[in-house]
């Protein structure tokens, strides 16, 4: 599962748009920003590389004394500051949003504790590693970008400026090479036209070369200057924990509401009816019998409501007989005919089995209420270490999980257990919802 997050600005230099986008790409804003990023990267990277290598070498050499510790801590702090600058540069010039790492926090207050926290910080050392390995890449990117850009535009515009040679020098045109007494100049109309065509090819290729170079920069910045996988996972688990807690609280409120408005109210009415029957038993046995009969009906309704509530919490058929029987029971109560197919090598873990069951319940409930379908299918199978659930109908389509509907809540529940929900619902073309859960037998 990917939770992701890097956007790229595109103002005419994108991959879409056909030949028009290709022709506009050399003068598009995105191309000039990427060129500026690569040209600016060399002086910044050179400065940081020199400071980082010098500082780490000096600090390592002084570790035999106390002075090495503050020197290394200062270098790491400088590298973190350079990382902040690089993330800002990537955001402004490349349009890629890279989150910063978690701040370095010392367990105790004081300068020594702060320096110790910096020296133990994995993100600080990743920033130092970036300062070292980015320098050779910045040199390569600078040279390639400047070469393609300068030679491309110079050759493309050669028909405009080649007159400089005969007017201001003794040469008829640009000297291409010299071999002994033989010198080759670009001076004939055919050679000028060919030079222009070569320049056009280089100019049109330049945006894509720049894009490839800056893609490597995005990867370096995201991998070394962003939060680590562990930090991202911790943040993800904290978010998922909040979703689980909110979902559990909502389920408890629903159960309390159903009990209060349903079975509890009926039991309260039953107690009143039985009390009245008790009072009339001696004086009017017929009326008492009618009250007891009404109370008997209320007991049946209350029992049915309690059974429905228990089924909504966790159905007994799911515990006793597994997903196949439980989903067949759900399908039989759906408003449209549903075909169920379950192909599992074994029963998954109870928690995953319960989530799979309630996922199908929610999706079939949407089919009954909104789809206007004539039929639906439910398929459950495994693929590698994942449990897949697919619910499809032939209804009107148009379902949008981002619209704040039940699908959005279902997406959050699946996300809390590293699950994924994908909804394909073209207008008028039916809906296919595919849920993916981790397989835990």
Task: Please provide a written account of the structure.
With 441 residues, the protein is an alpha+beta fold. It has three domains: 18-227, no CATH class; 230-313, Up-down Bundle (Single alpha-helices involved in coiled-coils or other helix-helix interfaces); 321-438, Heat Shock Protein 90 (2-Layer Sandwich). It is built from 14 helices and seven strands. Strands 3-4-5-7-6 form a five-stranded mixed beta sheet, with helices on one face. α3 crosses α4 (111-120) and α5 (122-156) packs antiparallel against α8 (189-225). The longest helix has 52 residues, at 229-280. The chain starts with 17 loop residues before the first helix and ends with a strand. Residues 1-10 and 12-16 have low confidence and may be disordered.
Order of helices and strands: HHHHHHHEEHHHHHEHEEHEE
Tally of helical segments: 14
Count of beta strands: 7
Tell me the strand percentage band: 5-15%
Subunit organisation of the chains:
single chain
**Cα shape:** elongated
Describe the main β-sheet briefly: 5 strands, mixed
- pLDDT < 50 stretches: 1-10, 12-16
> What count of domains describes the coordinates?
3
Helix % is 55-70%
Rg calc = 35 Å
Distance N terminus to C terminus? Answer: 20 Å
Average residue-wise pLDDT: 81
Structural class: alpha+beta
What are the key terms here?
3 domains; about 450 residues; Heat Shock Protein 90; 5-stranded mixed β-sheet; 14 helices; Single alpha-helices involved in coiled-coils or other helix-helix interfaces; alpha+beta
